[in-house]
């Protein structure tokens, strides 16, 4: 449920701008007028001031004086609606600054429920629940681009499943989470699963862990009693040339006495195309759930939701929207959005140190603009930054020759002089002529590749 305050302030709820209009500060600012807010679905809250239970209540619940100033028309229109103000963020307080950074950290798992992934989580939960209720093994394949909340959502479902099993008095399935990036070799996945069933070492004899699992799931006497929820994350790492490990893994759920509820998570978009047809032919096609890239509204919603643990406002709403728009247009990667927000907080923090102003303030559109331009650099800038130091210096020498000396062409000798000059002024030993001409050739090849 949006709060009155968020309905008043949230750009996402208050405006429904066109997806294309919007990346300039002015264009974005223009949209956030009270008029637009009144057109939003929440407009009833704005157009009936007398209905507000908060009428006449000012910040922190104190009686509120209505301003008669013509400049404060917004206040006159909505004054009675503004919820008690939150305490102001004091960014100079290290504990508060730390709390903000933590809320935005990618490793911080939101303690409350997840927003924007309800449908996907419900589908995964229903799948697991059906397996437990029917006491039946099955497999699920979750795919989607990076940073779309796959790992987070599946972990939340795991917790929910165990709460549900407790509530209804069913046996909670045991669980095993494997991140394939940590496996020494792809087939280690089978020993990890086998280990969870706590099979005594001798029991397997000369059989490989995969064969032991296959044999265990084929006979009623050897089948384990309890179901095992196996979450295989970063499954892309299991791709071998013949995809045998992937096939064998999913096939484990097809044995008559299998106890595995298998959830594979991957972000290779085409992984499904490469291994699902074979599984289908083996009559073992997993249920597939795709996590789509986050939209701008979802990104803004998630950021605001994560910040709700704080008592104070940290960002100007417009700043959050700007970040959401840019990230959604580029990739819809929530990890990137959180990184940009943290970077904007750092920009704000560094300016705070430089200024003598003791005012509090919040992270603004301008701070976000700087943070975004650090992350979304033009391709050409990124390519230059990736070049070795001396090649970058050759480019500086070229720029010097063409821009400052206003020349249209130059010789290798002249360019070398300019390069040596730059090396001297930056106290970096210059490379010899042979290496210099090699560097020029490499650079020229790069330009041909990316004209
Ligand atoms: N709905 C959400 N609510 C809150 N935070 C989210 C949400 N979705 C993603 N995040 C955050 O975004 C980051 C990336 O999420 P997650 O690791 O789940 O993505 P992923 O889809 O598994 O990415 P990858 O394919 O790279 O493994 C995490 O820090 C996570 O906390
Ligand atoms: Mg993940």
Automatic annotation (TrEMBL):
Query: According to the lineage, what is the superkingdom?
Result: Eukaryota
The molecule here is called Uncharacterized protein
Source species taxonomy:
Eukaryota, Viridiplantae, Streptophyta, Embryophyta, Tracheophyta
